[in-house]
Amino acid sequence: MSNSEIITFSIIAAKDFAGNHKLARAYFKRIGYFPKMLSTSHINRRSRQIPWFIWQAIFRFLSYLFNRENTNKTLSKDISAKNRTRFFVTGV
Question: CA torsion, points 83, 16, 62, 35, in degrees to nearest 10?
């Protein structure tokens, strides 16, 4: 999987599967969306290897798009103490 596929996978997993990479991986593998699907641990490692400034640029752009339609919500990325990446939509 390329970096763009890892980023796409992470964002879709966060949005549609509440950040559950195992469930998202099973779904994408079943429908064949990513032809060279990595294991869950490899996806997590590759996601953490993507430089922070790339994630920051992506999330600034996504926040801009998201906030144009939802002025009372925020899209953010959280890295917990156990190095697990989670994405959240906060607000009401």
Answer: 80
